[in-house]
Design goal:
21% strand; Rossmann fold; Nucleotidyltransferase, domain 5; 7-stranded mixed β-sheet; elongated; 15 helices; 17 strands
Length: 442
């Protein structure tokens, strides 16, 4: 069996259906333990050896096997491939370190190269490939780099095997929701689709996950849900980051401030362009700032711009009053934290950000952009997740952000951004506050 393990490989109906699919991009949105990585390994071997039962695959060929990390490769994709590659088919293996494969050359001449999302986009700028396997969800920039690994006259086939644990990210909008695209084969499968998974195993996993709300929906059925994983699941660096060399005078400018001492004080300068899009132009995050320090930092960044409105999430009225005093007084209006009907405040804020952050169908662009130099804010956006909460019988559990404050992590910049998006969605009042140059500009 070690000489030709694929001869004895079994497939359940969902796996067989994916094998038969002829679309160049096949995306398997399956629950955990349904057999998606097993199928991905089998498909990789079929392509590399030219033994696909439903397609004519010319060998030798080159393919990539891509995992989130090399450690996960060792326990996931590589382990499955070791199961299906015959020992008599291997010509040579290059190792990255210890027992982790870097590349594998077969005697037929085909080459498998192993890569990870951790390596970044630049490591995927290479020659054309015949096939690419993404195990778990790839970052959008890496996916886009891989899609262009085409060679004239030679097809590129891609398969993605993943459980959508990060919620409704770019892949939900660009692939899962694009149901009419003939390039895509979309497959969904759950625990009950895997006949090799016993009832006892399913009951054990269900018993653990059912107290965690939507996690069960994701893990068992592979469904996309909005309150699991990343709060800013719409975020795409290549779409949302911009470089600002100047601030146009015909834009409208706003600011938002969140005070702190041991927790960092954060401040954002926001510009609304002529299309009504939100541009996060500048800001700071720093601990132990005195009132005069805050004013000075803000003055150096505003540089004479007229600020239309200032918003504050500071729970220290005394600090707000001190900030409003001349010279260089800052006029700040406390944010009104009014949740949307039947939603938590965190949900309301998340939806407000998403309404600007997600890619718009008409333009293919978002309506929210951030200065690429605000690395601290970018890091917060990319790491804020929904809190997985245990269900309590008879008690409604409202979704909350997992801000990890007890571990010293802070997401005040995301809160500031969310407060502004929430406030900006409100209809502008016909009567505005009287203009006060001493408070509203430098």
């Amino acid at each position: 069996m070690k000489l030709n393990p694929m001869k004895y490989a079994q497939q359940h109906p969902k796996q067989l259906e994916a094998t038969k699919a002829l679309q160049p991009i096949r995306a398997l949105f399956w629950g955990n333990r349904v057999g998606k990585t097993e199928w991905g390994a089998q498909e990789s071997v079929r392509y590399s050896t030219g033994t696909h039962p439903f397609k004519k695959i010319i060998i030798p060929n080159d393919g990539w096997v891509i995992s989130p990390s090399f450690d996960l490769q060792l326990e996931g994709t590589q382990k499955k491939l070791e199961k299906y590659i015959g020992s008599n088919e291997i010509e040579h293996i290059d190792y990255l370190r210890s027992s982790i494969w870097k590349s594998l050359r077969l005697k037929c001449g085909s080459l498998m190269t192993f890569k990870t999302y951790e390596q970044g986009r630049e490591k995927f700028q290479s020659a054309a490939k015949r096939w690419i396997w993404f195990d778990e969800e790839p970052p959008s920039d890496i996916y886009e780099e891989c899609v262009v690994r085409q060679e004239a006259g030679i097809p590129l086939d891609i398969w993605i095997t993943m459980t959508p644990i990060n919620g409704m990210t770019w892949i939900y909008d660009d692939i899962y929701s694009d149901t009419g695209n003939p390039l895509y084969y979309i497959s969904e499968a759950e625990w009950n689709d895997n006949p090799y998974l016993t009832d006892s195993q399913k009951n054990i996993m269900r018993g653990i996950l059912e107290k965690r709300g939507q996690s069960l929906e994701v893990r068992e059925k592979g469904h996309f849900v909005s309150r699991v994983g990343l709060v800013c699941s719409w975020w795409r660096r290549e779409k949302h980051l911009r470089e600002y060399k100047s601030f146009p005078v015909d834009w409208s400018y706003f600011e938002i401030f969140d005070g702190g001492w041991t927790d960092p004080a954060t401040w954002l300068l926001i510009g609304i362009d002529n299309l009504g899009d939100i541009n996060i132009l500048d800001g700071f995050k720093e601990t132990e700032l005195l009132t005069e320090d805050i004013k000075e930092k803000r003055k150096n960044k505003v540089l004479g711009l007229v600020i239309r409105k200032g918003i504050s999430d500071n729970d220290n009225p005394r600090l707000n009053k001190e900030l409003s005093k001349p010279p260089d007084g800052i006029s700040l209006i406390p944010i009104e934290k009014t949740p949307n009907e039947k939603k938590s405040w965190d949900e309301t804020m998340a939806e407000a950000m998403a309404s600007f952050g997600r890619i718009q169908k008409g333009t293919g662009e978002p309506r929210l952009f951030i200065n690429k130099n605000l690395t601290w804010l970018i890091q917060q956006i990319e790491n804020l997740k929904w809190l997985e909460q245990k269900k309590v019988e008879g008690v409604e559990i409202l979704p909350k952000w997992n801000d990890h404050r007890k571990f010293g992590h802070h997401f005040d910049g995301v809160y500031d951004l969310a407060y502004f998006c929430t406030d900006y969605l409100k209809p502008l009042e016909k009567e505005t506050l009287p203009y006060n140059r001493s408070k509203w500009s430098i």
